[in-house]
Design brief:
By secondary structure, the protein is α+β, with helices and mostly antiparallel strands. The protein is built from eight helices and 16 strands. Helix 5 runs antiparallel to helix 6.
C-alpha cells in the first residue's frame, strides 16, 4: 500500500512515499533531495542506534533499574522466605523433632538451590539473537526500500534472501518472507521482534518482566525449570508449615516473634502456588504441542500458504526432547541441552524430520476435510444442463447426475462421477465408467439444484 505523507512545518511540496511491508510495518521510501534539516540518529548496519551520549545515559540507567524491579522483588521475597523457613521454622518450631528438621532442611535446600540456579540462568542466558549473516547489507536494504509496490517488495526480498542463503519455511500472512524493518534482517523460522529488548529473538515465546529478559530458544528450558522449581518450592513450604500454622492459632506452641514469619511464609507460599500453578501447566501444554505463546495465539503460515498450528509438532515426546535434550539425566538441571540451532526446525507439513533424533515414527496424518453437499451443473454443447447431487463423504464423493434437455425436457441415462476433495476444500470431478444394469432408473434433479454457470 502506497500513501503520500506531507512533512510537518511550513515547507510545502515535500512528499515521501510510505509502504507497508507484508508484516504490517511501515517502510520509508526515498524522498526527493531537500535542504539539510535536523540531524537524525546515526544507525548501525543492523538497524540499531549507536551508543548514547553522556546526556542520554542517566535515562537509560534509570530505565534499566525500573525494569529490574520485578527481579529485585522476587529475589527479596525468596531471601526472606529462606530466613522464615530455616531460622523460624527449622530452628525454632521444629526443635522438638530432629528427624523432621534434617529431612525438611535437606529437601528445602535442594529446592532452594535449584530454584535460584534456574532463575539465574533464565535471567542471564541470552534467549538467542539472529545471526549477522541474516542481516541485510546497505545495498540490499536500499534495493528493498526502492520497491514501488508490494509485489516488487516481495520479489526483491525473496531474491535477496536466496543470495544470502537464508532458507525459511514460515511466511507472513501475505505470503512473503518475514522481514524485520527495525533490525533490517530476515526473520528465521519462529523468530519475532521484541519491542522491549529491541531486537529479534530466536523462537521467541514472550518477554517476561519477572526475569527482565525475553524467553526464547536459548533459555526456554531454564524458564520451564524455573517455573517447576518455584512451584515445588512453594508447595513444599506450604505443606511443611501448615501444621505449625494451625498450632499457632490454638496457642499450643509459643516461639515468640518467629511465629509471625511462619504465618506469613505459609500465606505467601499459598498465594504463589496458586499463581504459578496455572502458568506452569500452560507451558507444559505448549512444550508437548511444540508451540510458543505467540504461536498459540496466531498459528504460523507456511510456504504453501497454509496455516497450521501443529506445523512444528513432532509428537509429545519428541517435542519435549527438543526443549530438554536427548539425555534424560540432564533434564532436571539448568544446563543447555536443547536440540537444534534455533534457526531451522523440523517441518511436519513437508515431512522433513532430518534435524533431530527419534522423530521418524511421528504420526503425520492428513488434514481431514469436512463433509459437504456438492452441486455441479454443467452446460453441454447441445444445450443440456447437467445437475448432480453428491453423497456425503470425507475424502471423496460419488455423484449420480442426469442430463435434462433444455428444449425437449427429456432425461438421459444416469452417469456416475466422482468428486475428489483436496485438503484445501477444492473439488475435482472425475468421470467413472460403470456398466449399466437393467434395473437402472432415470433421475431428475430438483429444480432448485439446477444452476447455470
Amino acid at each position: 500500500l502506497i500513501a503520500e505523507s506531507k512533512m510537518s512545518g511550513g515547507e510545502a511540496g515535500r512528499l515521501g512515499n510510505i509502504m507497508t511491508n507484508p508484516e504490517g510495518e511501515f517502510v520509508g521510501l526515498p524522498a526527493p533531495a531537500t535542504a539539510p534539516g535536523p540531524a537524525t540518529p546515526v544507525m548501525t548496519p543492523h538497524g540499531g542506534q549507536r551508543r548514547p551520549n553522556l546526556l542520554q545515559r542517566p535515562c537509560m540507567y534509570l530505565a534499566c533499574f525500573v525494569k529490574s524491579l520485578p527481579v529485585l522483588f522476587i529475589t527479596g521475597i525468596v531471601l526472606w522466605s529462606y530466613y522464615a523457613y530455616v531460622v523460624a521454622l527449622l530452628f525454632y518450631a521444629m526443635v522438638e523433632n530432629p528427624a523432621e528438621q534434617i529431612f525438611c532442611g535437606i529437601v528445602y535446600h535442594y529446592f532452594f538451590i535449584m530454584f535460584f540456579w534456574s532463575y539465574g540462568m533464565t535471567i542471564f542466558t541470552p534467549p538467542g539473537r539472529v545471526p549477522d549473516s541474516w542481516h541485510l547489507t546497505g545495498h540490499a536494504s536500499a534495493a528493498l526500500s526502492a520497491a514501488k509496490s508490494e509485489e516488487e517488495w516481495k520479489e526483491t526480498l525473496a531474491s535477496v534472501g536466496n543470495k544470502m542463503g537464508c532458507t525459511t519455511k514460515q511466511r507472513s500472512v501475505q505470503g512473503a518472507i518475514r522481514y524485520c524493518e527495525k533490525c533490517s534482517c530476515i526473520k528465521p523460522d519462529r523468530a519475532h521482534h521484541c519491542s522491549v529488548c529491541e531486537k529479534c529473538i530466536l523462537k521467541m515465546d514472550h518477554h517476561c518482566p519477572w526475569v527482565n529478559n525475553c524467553v526464547g530458544f536459548g533459555n526456554y528450558k531454564f524458564f520451564m525449570l524455573f517455573l517447576c522449581y518455584a512451584l515445588l518450592y512453594c508447595i513444599f513450604i506450604a505443606a511443611t508449615s501448615a501444621r505449625y500454622f494451625v498450632r499457632f492459632w490454638s496457642d499450643s506452641l509459643s516461639i515468640g516473634a518467629a511465629k509471625y514469619h511462619i504465618i506469613f511464609v505459609f500465606l505467601v507460599s499459598i498465594l504463589f502456588t496458586i499463581s504459578i500453578f496455572s502458568l506452569f501447566w500452560y507451558h507444559v501444554y505448549l512444550v508437548t504441542q511444540n508451540r510458543s505463546t505467540l504461536e498459540q495465539f496466531r498459528a504460523p503460515v507456511f510456504e504453501d500458504q497454509a496455516t497450521d498450528k501443529d506445523g512444528w509438532s513432532l509428537g509429545a515426546l519428541n517435542n519435549f526432547k527438543e526443549v530438554f535434550g536427548l539425555n534424560p539425566l540432564l533434564w532436571p538441571f539448568p544446563v543447555s541441552t536443547s536440540v537444534g540451532d534455533g534457526i531451522s526446525f523440523p517441518h511436519r507439513r513437508a515431512k522433513q524430520f532430518t534435524n533431530y533424533h527419534s522423530i521418524v515414527n511421528s504420526d503425520n496424518r492428513a488434514v481431514e476435510t469436512p463433509t459437504r453437499t456438492l452441486v455441479n451443473p454443467i452446460i453441454s454443447g447441445a444445450g443440456t444442463v447437467s445437475a448432480s447431487q453428491t453423497i456425503h463423504s470425507h475424502q471423496s464423493s460419488v455423484q449420480q447426475s442426469g442430463n435434462i434437455s433444455a428444449l425437449s425436457g427429456t432425461v438421459s441415462p444416469l452417469s456416475a462421477t466422482e468428486v475428489v476433495l483436496d485438503t484445501n476444500g477444492h473439488t475435482k470431478t472425475v468421470s467413472v465408467h460403470h456398466p449399466t444394469t437393467a434395473n437402472s432408473t432415470t433421475h431428475t434433479a430438483p429444480p432448485s439444484e439446477i444452476i447455470i454457470q
